[in-house]
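Researcher: Re-running this chain for the archive, since the previous output was lost when a drive failed. Same request as before.
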Amino acid sequence: MKISAHDRSLRSRLDCFGHRQGMALPHIFAIACVLAALTACGKKTEKEAGEAPTPVLVEAAVRGAVDHMVTADAILYPINQANVTPKINAPVKRMLVNRGDHVRAGQVLAELESGDLAAAVNESNSQYQQAQASYQNISGATLPEDKNKAQADVLVAQQVLEAAQKLYDNRVALQKEGALAQKLVDDAKVTLAQARGQLQTAQKHLDALNQVSQRETIRGAQAQVNAAKAHYDNSAVQLTYAEIRSPINGVVSDRSVYAGEMPASGTPIISIVDISQVVARANIPVKEATAIKVGRPARITGPDGDLAGKVTVVSPSVDPSTTTVEVWVQVANPGEKLKPGASVRVAIIAETIQNTIVIPAAALLNADDGGQKVMVITSDSVAHERRISVGVRQGARVQIVSGLQEGEQVVVSGGLGLEDKAKVAIQQPKAEDEDEPAADEEKKPDAQKGADKDKGKK
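Model: Regenerated structure tokens:
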């Protein structure tokens, strides 16, 4: 029979024990057999008695509301900003603000050299006044020379017509008496017709002068007045451009020139940002962004705390490089503590799900197949494994889509490693220790205790 190394070692130790105690080897083996039998009996007795219940903490599944929160990292931007660029090319006469100064809309920020512009305004003003005077002379004067001549022509034509009419009448009377030939009567008739035509032509000429020439002359004078006024207004506006004003309320974030310098054409000389409110721009995955609507409440978490805001922009397109949607969250910035360019965390309430089953997130356990489960405690204090379908999470709470009913008790502490159909003992949550202030009092040094007592007496 082959003896294992373990048996040989055990036999050697027992042999040494027997030599020390003066006992024979058979006696020693007998004692070992008795000890082994007693140990086996003890284990059997413990198993028959049953294992002790596992202590657990439980909470009931409740029906309520849960917010679908979408969180993402974001970068802060000012609510409004302006890069102020001069509209004219001129040296800087003086700067009236520095970086960090608060300005209001319409406030003068800088002045440019404007002597030549002021002279141009005076010149155009003089031209405007001259055009006005000319217009007054034309519109208020008597009839011009052409009109006087046309009136004279009409008067002469009337006199000629009257003479021709008398000649014709006399010859007709003489011809009836037989004292004048018919040919002379016909000649007088032709002369009368010509006189009438001349009168009509002169009258038409006069009417044309009254209705057209004078109106066009006045219109031309009015056009000259308008042109002079436009030139004057343009010069006056150019002069106002010498004063550079702020288009918005805000803070001066940059000032690139100093007095005496000539700003480059088209280059901003002052930058202003309005940070009374800030906008956090976050790139959110398309799947989550579909539930976000403009106006939904949101919060921004930064180094200076947590601020409430709302969604103001949801981009209608997807960024092809990141496959995300840009969402803007706007919040008030009291004290201007939040600075543009800083990184923050945004939390957007995409939707509020009403009338749903909610349990603590601590009750969730990982199932063997990769899903999720909870341990449900029945009225007989027995744990039952239950597979569930999880919806949205909100902090320490989670929505249960299926697998649980309202009022069922789930294990929130002690469920890890708890087997299905195991006996449990439901524990009550520990209350806050009311004696803790007294314990803290005991830890105070004697001198501090005395000082506190004296303060209480006072």
